[in-house]
Amino acid sequence: MHAVAPDATAASTADRLRITEIFLSLQGEARDAGWPTVFVRLTGCPLRCGYCDTTYAFHGGEWWSIDGILAEVARHGVRHVCVTGGEPLAQKRCLGLLSRLCDAGHVVSLETSGAIDIAGVDARVSRVLDVKTPASGEVARNRWENIPLLTPHDQVKFVVCSRADYEWAREVVHARALHARCDVLFSPSKSELSPTDLADWIVADRLPVKFQMQLHKLLWNDEPGR
Hints:
Elements: E1 16-26, E2 36-42, E3 62-65, H1 66-76, E4 80-84, H2 94-103, E5 107-112, E6 126-131, E7 155-160, H3 163-175, E8 183-188, H4 195-205, E9 210-211, H5 215-220
Parallel strand pairs: 2-4, 4-5, 5-6, 6-7, 7-8, 8-9
Antiparallel strand pairs: 1-2, 1-3
């Protein structure tokens, strides 16, 4: 069940974020896959990737105070929290939310498109940077200046839609030595590429990346809030 926003009228405008949903599920991808996790999905995104599966988060949402968000996260009683979107960093107050979640003792990850500067993100947060492939339609939005900021605590993700996408991503991994900076994850676009094909290509090339499929989609398909 999705949370209902508390009355945020008394909260300072500087202390509010627009939220699409807050829910408890299993983390379906990246390093923390399998852990019970509270997802805080912020509203809005400046990108329009062709494979986006959360278009419902582009608009709408409700205003929440940061205190209200923390209280709702704490109510679920788990340690892991994923701040996602949309593009969460499109709301500047997201940086304060991330730090407050860390201060509260949570293991925090941030799912970001990589189109916005990540320098201000709290160092305790694992930044999961989604590098946009050509087939996404948003490859020109990649902010390559983010790459030197990555640490072993962070992760890079490519959603691969075709063989051409794979070859492009493979070149980026090698040219920018991404595997020497942090974990690199390759995922097949659910509607466009066979997972078996992607797995076979990775193995054939001995590519230093981790193949992943989205666990939550295997369990619950595309059901929102899962």
